[in-house]
């Protein structure tokens, strides 16, 4: 059979991990020493091969010599082949079947949709626990074949594959714990429920950047569909009503939720979003990546009561009544204005005259002098100012620094400012 054109896996491997490009390092776990190869082989007398091989964006189209792959990659556990030109599953199988301890395989952005994955080829993936097929446009038929041949698969990445629907597998995959299926076009909950049927042991479901519009499922059915779900990511989904958020409580083991960028929350402040979500989701311990402390939960639940206490009865959520039972009816919080004072009324003394004036505290001493020119009939260069705090025990303080802001003196209503002419 003719060798496919392009660069082979072995060719790229020898180039990247040759002694010149990747120096040999001694010591356990640092690589392997490979004896000299037969005459005519492009290999050097040794290669430093770590157990994690990263060969992304290298133009790989085929496997190369399988005996050499087996000789060099017996210890390899992780392999990144993303963004290459692999379009034939048979070539992928030749590589993987000769890496017996492989647990992680990244095939993202390879045009593998151009060929059919046969079960005998998929069997070479049997030991893989983490498989990444992002932007590979892998069909659901391909995914089903993989699921049937990978009994220990724990993590599957299917992002950017233009999925609008989900095709159910004829068999359940009991081993899968994490499914990363972001940036697709899954809008209808009927497609998401198929994932629950296929992956009953799912612990983490990452659905970000799918325009999921609503969660159309009864509470009992949700609990049966995702009985082990601990974490769900719904960032930038299309959820737009609080009833969908409430339904997340139906997942019996759910404790981590991500819900940024959804239409429902756009009209709320950052504080309101977090507190209202925490109050509605009593079992979660982490929201949008941040731990929910006990104190924050109580603050949020009390906030929730006060937030809804003035709403019409028909608009008050059931969670409100649960929290009133827990905390009782709360009094509205007093409104306290904590903004710094912007102006004060002071007495301006000049010679034997006293005038009450309102002055802005954001201005400088120099600006105050300009403001006083018309009052005291002195030029700013011929003006000395003294500030007297009504409670200060040490007498007036000269305001000698022109650029100093008035608020830094701590001026309050009723304090006094004395103006004196500069002595010649």
Automatic annotation (TrEMBL):
Q: Does the keyword Lipoprotein apply?
A: no
Signal peptide from the UniProt entry = none
Q: Which GO terms describe its cellular component?
A: cytoskeleton
> What is the protein name stated in its UniProt record?
Leucine-rich repeat-containing protein 51
Q: Which CDD domains does the UniProt entry name for this protein?
A: Ubl_TBCEL
**Organism superkingdom:** Eukaryota
Q: Which UniProt keywords apply?
A: Coiled coil, Cytoplasm, Cytoskeleton, Leucine-rich repeat, Phosphoprotein, Repeat
> What does the function comment of this entry state?
Acts as a regulator of tubulin stability.
Q: Where in the cell is it found?
A: Cytoplasm, Cytoskeleton
Q: Give the encoding gene's name.
A: Tbcel
Coarse class of the primary localization is cytoplasm
The yes or no answer to whether the keyword Phosphoprotein is present is yes
Where in this chain does the record put each Ubiquitin-like domain? 348-420
């Amino acid at each position: 059979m003719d060798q496919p054109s392009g660069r082979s896996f072995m060719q790229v491997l020898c180039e990247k991990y040759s002694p010149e490009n990747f120096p040999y390092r001694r010591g356990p776990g640092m690589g392997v020493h490979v004896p000299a190869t037969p005459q005519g082989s492009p290999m050097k007398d040794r290669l430093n091969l770590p157990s994690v091989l990263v060969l992304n964006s290298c133009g790989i189209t085929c496997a190369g010599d399988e005996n050499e792959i087996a000789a060099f990659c017996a210890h390899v556990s992780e392999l990144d082949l993303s963004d290459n030109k692999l379009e034939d599953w048979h070539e992928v199988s030749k590589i993987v079947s000769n890496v017996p301890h492989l647990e992680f395989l990244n095939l993202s952005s390879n045009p593998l949709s151009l060929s059919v994955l046969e079960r005998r080829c998929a069997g070479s993936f049997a030991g893989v626990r983490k498989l990444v097929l992002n932007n590979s446009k892998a069909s659901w038929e391909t995914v089903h074949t993989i699921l049937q041949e990978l009994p220990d698969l724990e993590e599957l990445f299917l992002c950017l594959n233009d999925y609008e629907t989900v095709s159910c597998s004829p068999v359940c995959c009991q081993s899968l714990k994490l499914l990363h299926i972001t940036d697709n076009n899954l809008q209808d909950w009927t497609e998401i429920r198929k994932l629950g049927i296929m992956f009953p042991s799912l612990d983490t479901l990452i659905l970000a950047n799918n325009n999921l519009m609503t969660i159309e499922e009864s509470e009992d059915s949700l609990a049966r569909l995702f009985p082990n779900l601990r974490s769900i990511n719904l960032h930038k989904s299309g959820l737009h009503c609080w009833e969908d958020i409430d339904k997340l409580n139906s997942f019996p083991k759910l404790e981590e939720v991500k819900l940024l960028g959804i239409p429902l929350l756009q009209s709320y402040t950052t504080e309101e979003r977090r507190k209202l979500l925490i109050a509605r989701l009593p079992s979660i311990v982490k929201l949008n990546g941040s731990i929910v402390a006990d104190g924050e939960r109580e603050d949020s639940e009390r906030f929730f009561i006060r937030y809804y206490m003035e709403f019409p009865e028909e608009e008050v959520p059931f969670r409100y009544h649960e929290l009133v039972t827990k905390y009782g009816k709360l009094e509205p919080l007093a409104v306290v204005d904590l903004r710094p004072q912007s102006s004060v009324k002071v007495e301006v003394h000049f010679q034997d005259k006293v005038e009450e004036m309102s002055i802005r505290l954001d201005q400088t001493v120099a600006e105050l002098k300009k403001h006083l020119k018309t009052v005291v009939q002195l030029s700013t260069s011929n003006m000395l100012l003294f500030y007297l705090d009504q409670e200060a025990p040490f007498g007036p303080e000269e305001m000698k620094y022109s650029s100093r802001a008035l608020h830094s003196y701590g001026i309050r209503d009723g304090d006094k400012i004395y103006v004196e002419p500069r002595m010649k």
